[in-house]
Structures are given as structure tokens and as C-alpha cells.
Design goal:
183 residues; two-stranded antiparallel sheet; Four Helix Bundle (Hemerythrin (Met), subunit A); single chain; mainly alpha; two-stranded parallel sheet
């Protein structure tokens, strides 16, 4: 494996060249599409599992982000490294996202953490004895964030995603979503 080390302030990120060890752009996009289909199916058949739907939203966004990183020959195994590479305020990052899309991704990551660990998405929940459950309002936020990310990456890389039927009473009928058709 041939690799090159790129140094950012206080951080070393490895850039893999030639033979990638992980999935490539098309494989990540295909997995994102499969996750979207699964999200729609879960939503239509067992809609009250909001925690699982939020988690699927995050993992869909993770594949979109990994597809983006693969376009820069970057692959990461830790969320912190991905977050750093995408951060719009890291001046030397070749893979940074615009601020709005970065915020959407980070929000999905926090919402998924809440769903998986019952932790407050706004802090590390280190001292709390309270469980933070996931409700339809959290799913609404996740869908809106995911929709923005899909739109961004579909536009940036000229890839297509099918519209998915979706039910969420917390999303207003007048709200414009690109990839989710409210039923």
C-alpha cells in the first residue's frame, strides 16, 4: 500500500493512493441508495421505530460523505477524523463541506448517537442519569438534514436518487423536500 501523510495543524490524516482498502465512490452511493430504500420500507411498515429510522438516516449520510471523501482519495475509520476532514473551518482540508451541509451531517451524527445510546444529542451526557429517547420530532429533523445532504451530493456529483414515500406528521405538508414524498 502506497500512502502519503498530509499534516494539518495538530492532526495527521493519511491519504491512500492507488489501491483503496475500502469501498469506492460508486459502492458508497449504491449503499446510500439501499439505505434510503430500507428507510422508506421501515417507515411505511413499522413507522413508530423512530430511533431506527434516525440511525438509518445517519448511516445513509455516512455513505454519502464517504463517497465524497473517496473522490479525494481519502478514507477514514474514525468519526472524529471524518468530521475534521469535512469541517469547513479547516482551511487546508481538500474535502471540506459548505457550512450548512457540514452542520446537517454533524446533526445527523448527534441524533443517531441519541438514538443508539439514549444520550442527549446536545452534549456528551457524561453526568446525566436520564435516558434521552427518540421521538418523531427527532426523525423530522433527521429527514430534513438527510434531504439537504442528498440534494447537495446529488448535485455536486451528478448522481440520482429516487424519491421515497415517507410518513412523518412532524414535517409540515408545505415543507419542500427533494427526495422524500410525504404520504
Amino acid at each position: 500500500m502506497l500512502r502519503k501523510v498530509i499534516t494539518y495543524p495538530c492532526r495527521i490524516i493519511t491519504k491512500y493512493l492507488r489501491h483503496n482498502l475500502l469501498a469506492n465512490f460508486d459502492e458508497h452511493i449504491e449503499q446510500a441508495r439501499k439505505n434510503l430504500a430500507f428507510l422508506s420500507e421501515v417507515n411505511q411498515k413499522i413507522a413508530n421505530y423512530y430511533d431506527w429510522q434516525v440511525t438509518i438516516c445517519f448511516y445513509t449520510s455516512l455513505h454519502l460523505v464517504n463517497a465524497h471523501l473517496s473522490k479525494h482519495n481519502l478514507q477514514y475509520r474514525k468519526h472524529n477524523d471524518v468530521n475534521y476532514a469535512l469541517n469547513p473551518f479547516v482551511q487546508l482540508s481538500i474535502s471540506k463541506l459548505p457550512e450548512e451541509e457540514y452542520d446537517c451531517y454533524m446533526s445527523l451524527q448527534r441524533l443517531s448517537r441519541r438514538s443508539r445510546y439514549l444520550a442527549n444529542e446536545k452534549d456528551n451526557n457524561l453526568k446525566s442519569t436520564q435516558a434521552f429517547l427518540t421521538y418523531e420530532k427527532h426523525l423530522s429533523k433527521a429527514i430534513k438534514h438527510l434531504d439537504k445532504l442528498i440534494y447537495f451530493f446529488a448535485t455536486k456529483y451528478a448522481v440520482s436518487f429516487d424519491n421515497k414515500d415517507f410518513t412523518c406528521t412532524e414535517i409540515g405538508k408545505g415543507e419542500k423536500l427533494h427526495y422524500f414524498k410525504l404520504t
